[in-house]
Amino acid sequence: MKKAIVAISLALTSLCLNAQAQPASSFKPGEIWPDNNGVHINAHGGGLLYHDGSYYWYGEHKIAGVAGNKAEVGVHVYSSNDLYNWTDRGIALKVEGDDSDIAKGCILERPKVIYNPKTKKFVMWFHLELKGKKYDSARSGVATADTPEGPFTFIRSQRHNAGHWPQNVQPEQKDPESIKLTLAENNKFGGGPSKKHAKFNILGSHFEGGQMARDMNLFVDDDGTAYHIYSSEHNSTLHISQLSEDFLSHTGHYTRNFPFRWMEAPAVFKHDGKYYLIASGCTGWKPNAARSAVADNILGPWTELKNPCTGTNPSNKLGAAKTFGGQSTYVLPVHGKKDAYIAMFDQWNPKDAIDGRYLWLPINFTADGFEIPWISEWDLSHFDK
């Protein structure tokens, strides 16, 4: 028996070394993706930053089992020059002690990093739920670093735009009586589709304390202005908010988008002067049909398009109606290639969080929007066709 165990161990070691020794030259969505150490990349709900010739991939570091759905370690970062092969750069942001908002055991999701050329700081935002509060906190955290690898220093967590109405606020949302009524019901709302939400003034009830923020993303426009996109109002409505010049706070300049459409997992990108959005419905860990939309202005108004996904993932037989088993997290413009964008999806595994897989797929532009086809193996030459 001991000899058999040793043989299996040696075989696994050999596989890891081979994975490390043979550089990857293509994307294989849904398969194990080894880093430079032969270990599956641990950067879930992630986002990418291109800086000084290198890509940096930030994501949630998961541990095995159900416990991995909470933050036990922090935010992991990897670097790459070609997008296929990734070097482990360690933990960019570590969880802290119980007196911190990012205490070990909190929920820390969807970290994104942008670079501020004025302050020369790397700025990370993420969805944060305080330890022991389930999903009731609905906050965002912000941290900064002097280098892309970190270490990042946690600054604070908050809800957003307290004391500010959105640009497209409606008169009834400022009604004191509806605000009072909603405050009495505030703790009874859920985070999924419900007709109940539309009966109450959720926006107004959070005016003083700040708006809720869960699934999120960041976007820096061509003029250097940064925006924070997040699910708000108990997930019923998406907010898009301008960040301050240092990217560390909100300006109070924001809009409500897709009211009562329950959009989460937002990912925004820009192509030929138009802004595009990929998002998900609110079905928890279970996959659903991807959403897409287009706008002439990042703050809207937005027009919904069709489900952009086409084809079927043969490994789980899930097609466009279930986004191949994944959920959107980021859209990456490939540096140096025209019209080249990669849609990044997570294939979650809540029963064994560390085994979550990555579905990276190319975006093809069409006359009426864009499509994301399933391709079991592909490389960047796809964009040269």
Indicate the structural class: mainly beta
Give me the Rg, rounded. 21 Å
The averaged pLDDT comes out at 94
Total number of beta strands: 24
**Helix count from the secondary structure assignment:** 3
Beta content comes to 35-45%
Question: What does the model show?
Answer:
The chain is mostly beta strands and 385 residues long. It contains 3 helices and 24 strands. The protein has helices at residues 2-21, 176-185, 202-205; strands spanning 44-51, 54-60, 74-80, 87-94, 107-116, 121-129, 139-145, 153-158, 216-220, 226-232, 237-243, 250-257, 264-271, 274-280, 291-295, 302-305, 309-310, 312-313, 318-319, 327-333, 341-347, 357-362, 364-366, 369-373. The strands form 7 sheets. The protein has a 4-stranded antiparallel beta sheet with strand order 1-2-3-4, with no helix packed on it. The chain has a 4-stranded antiparallel beta sheet with strand order 5-6-7-8, with no helix packed on it. A hairpin with a 6-residue loop joins strand 11 (237-243) and strand 12. It is globular.
